């Protein structure tokens, strides 16, 4: 029997005219050609193994050194933290900690020392108990002067010190109050003994953590995990997870349809999902996401420094049409960094609906009048950088075509992701598009918009890549991370959201649905807003 998709948030399949305009007719023909060679030649993955497909090389599973999205998702399967945001609400819940409480407050009543008690049944993949000394070691190892972790500066900013009180109790001494402390504890804990055996790093990439899986073999293009029989949450139903790097989206699709893979998440083109879910052997599961897709401006660029130009660009983009045509309705329009389901989300901010006439008027005001009426000359010309991912390039070209309608000539340039990211960090761009990591905490506003977080020679990894400066935002985002009372924080971030909606250093585009494509024999997988792979710990395979 043909499998039907399971949707946590339903999508809408668009009609034929829009499909043809945005390439859906081509997409349907493409998938038909791809699949025709697979049907009738299906194979089966081993009953005791889930074959997971990812698009990028796996560089490290040590949480202290992970950089890319794929590394981070896999790392959480091996090395979870004291807390975890892998909940439908994204609220931090206790994981390796049995308790986590403030023990000292400042004169204003804000916590400045926290104590975590490690749960008694927490065990690493090698069977050794997780102790407070392992927790302290994980943090201390990133704070030493010779640490090469990209997280070092963030932890130095947060913590005066982290020290074990005894085998089960560890204390975190903060430099200043930190409202998002509980969420920050969603940082993977590693075994001190196993790391020290390799001189501070894990031999052969075989990270030892206390998650539902442990590393059986590690290679950049292939990682093999096996269930951790000592996991405090109980042994995973599936004995093995075989993670394979398949860079080409068409190849990933062929493997799923052909039966030589079991799982891929957020790595297939959204404009093909409607076709995929009609195929035998596959189940498509969708759900809301806490990830934002956005168009960024280099606010130091002479043209883009003018907020009227940025607003004109926002008004010239028909986001509803793009979501309908390119995502099959599987995305929610964004008004800012936070998704609508977030506790700090404020809907009462300036919006930018599709309004090309208003966009043209703003360009006139900004000193970019139409030079030749209906002629071919543009008002201004910009370059738009994006990664070389085929779908992301297609989206950039649609946005470029819409901007051309209001007289903005846009040249789309695509690059291998490493090159693209390097240019963005160094401000070598005018327009660019990216996605955030899952936004679980409004403190991300500090990371993305505080002026101290503009990348520079001192640290190219900071996230205010649009080089935005606003004294009021600096004050509010610093205050928001200091105040623990949620009602006060909600008011603070409401003002933050309004200011940023007016200043528009980035155009919030949409929150794309998470989409998992699974072998129809796989059951029990939980799709979570953070888009990580922790749902695999409950997955099983029907063998009859």
CATH C-level category of the largest domain: Alpha Beta
Q: Radius of gyration, rounded?
A: 24 Å
Uncertain spans: 1-27
* Helix content estimate: 25-40%
CATH superfamily of the largest domain: Dipeptide-binding Protein, Domain 3
Estimated share of beta-strand residues = 15-25%
Mean pLDDT: 90
Widest sheet, order of strands: 15-19-14-18-16-17
Q: What is the architecture of the largest domain at the second tier of CATH? A: Roll
Secondary-structure-derived class:
alpha+beta
Q: How many β-strand runs?
A: 22
H/I helix tally: 17
Distance between the termini: 15 Å
**CATH-defined topology of the largest domain:** Dipeptide-binding Protein, domain 3
Q: How many structural domains does the protein architecture include?
A: 3
Tell me the overall shape. Answer: globular
Largest sheet: 6 strands, mixed
Provide the fold topology.
Elements: E1 6-7, H1 16-21, H2 24-36, E2 49-54, H3 69-78, E3 83-84, E4 93-94, E5 97-105, E6 111-118, H4 132-143, H5 152-158, E7 159-164, E8 169-174, H6 181-184, H7 192-197, E9 213-219, E10 222-227, E11 240-245, H8 249-258, E12 263-265, H9 270-276, E13 282-287, E14 293-297, H10 307-316, H11 319-327, E15 331-333, H12 356-365, E16 380-387, H13 390-404, E17 408-415, H14 417-425, E18 431-435, H15 444-449, H16 471-482, H17 486-503, E19 506-512, E20 514-519, E21 522-523, E22 540-541
Parallel strand pairs: 1-13, 2-11, 16-17, 16-18
Antiparallel strand pairs: 3-4, 5-6, 6-8, 7-8, 9-10, 10-11, 12-20, 13-20, 14-18, 14-19, 15-19, 21-22
Helix pairs in contact: 2-9, 10-12, 16-17
């Amino acid at each position: 029997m043909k499998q039907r998709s399971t949707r946590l948030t339903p999508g809408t399949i668009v009609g034929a005219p829009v499909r043809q305009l945005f390439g859906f007719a081509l997409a349907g023909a493409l998938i038909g050609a791809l699949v025709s060679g697979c049907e009738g030649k299906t194979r089966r993955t081993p009953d005791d193994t889930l074959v997971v497909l990812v698009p990028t090389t796996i560089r490290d599973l040590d949480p202290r050194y992970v950089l890319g999205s794929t590394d981070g998702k896999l790392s959480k399967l091996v090395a979870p933290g004291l807390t975890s945001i892998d909940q439908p609400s994204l609220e931090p819940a206790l994981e390796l900690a049995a308790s986590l409480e403030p023990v000292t407050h400042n004169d204003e009543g804000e916590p400045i020392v926290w104590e975590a008690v490690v749960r008694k049944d927490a065990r690493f993949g090698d069977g050794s108990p997780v102790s407070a000394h392992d927790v302290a070691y994980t943090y201390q190892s990133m704070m030493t002067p010779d640490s090469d972790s990209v997280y070092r500066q963030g932890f130095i900013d947060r913590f005066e010190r982290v020290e074990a009180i005894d085998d089960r109790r560890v204390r975190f001494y903060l430099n200043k109050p930190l409202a998002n402390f509980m969420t920050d504890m969603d940082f993977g804990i590693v075994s001190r003994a196993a790391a020290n055996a390799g001189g501070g790093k894990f031999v052969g990439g075989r990270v030892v953590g206390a998650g539902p899986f442990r590393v059986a073999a590690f290679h950049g293009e292939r990682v093999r995990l096996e269930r951790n029989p000592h996991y405090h949450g109980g042994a995973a139903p599936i004995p093995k997870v075989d993670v394979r790097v398949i860079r080409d989206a068409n190849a990933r699709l062929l493997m799923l349809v052909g039966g030589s893979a079991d799982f891929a998440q957020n790595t297939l083109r959204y404009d093909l999902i409607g076709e995929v879910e009609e195929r035998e052997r596959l189940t498509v599961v969708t759900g809301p996401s806490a990830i934002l897709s956005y168009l960024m401006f280099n606010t130091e660029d002479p043209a883009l420094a003018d907020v009227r130009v940025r607003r004109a660009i926002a008004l010239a983009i028909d986001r509803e049409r793009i979501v309908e045509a390119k995502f099959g309705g599987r995305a929610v329009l964004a008004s800012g960094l936070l998704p609508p389901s977030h506790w700090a989300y404020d809907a009462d901010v300036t919006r930018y609906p599709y309004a090309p006439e208003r966009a043209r008027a703003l360009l006139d005001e900004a000193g970019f009048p139409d030079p030749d009426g209906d002629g071919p000359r543009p008002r201004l010309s910009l370059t738009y950088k994006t990664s070389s991912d085929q779908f992301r390039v297609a989206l950039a070209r649609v946005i470029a075509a819409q901007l051309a309608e209001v007289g903005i000539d846009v040249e789309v340039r695509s690059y291998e992701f490493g090159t693209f990211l390097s240019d963005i960090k160094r401000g070598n761009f005018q327009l660019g598009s990216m996605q955030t990591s899952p936004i679980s905490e409004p403190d991300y506003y500090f990371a993305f918009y505080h002026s101290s977080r503009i990348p520079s020679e001192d640290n190219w990894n900071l996230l205010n890549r649009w080089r935005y400066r606003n004294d009021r935002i600096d004050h509010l985002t610093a205050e928001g991370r200091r105040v623990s009372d949620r009602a006060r924080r909600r008011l603070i971030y409401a003002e933050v959201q309004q200011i940023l909606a007016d200043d528009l250093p980035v155009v919030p585009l949409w929150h794309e649905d998470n989409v998992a494509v699974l072998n129809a024999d796989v059951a029990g997988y939980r799709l979570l807003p953070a888009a990580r792979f922790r749902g695999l710990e409950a997955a099983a395979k029907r063998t009859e």
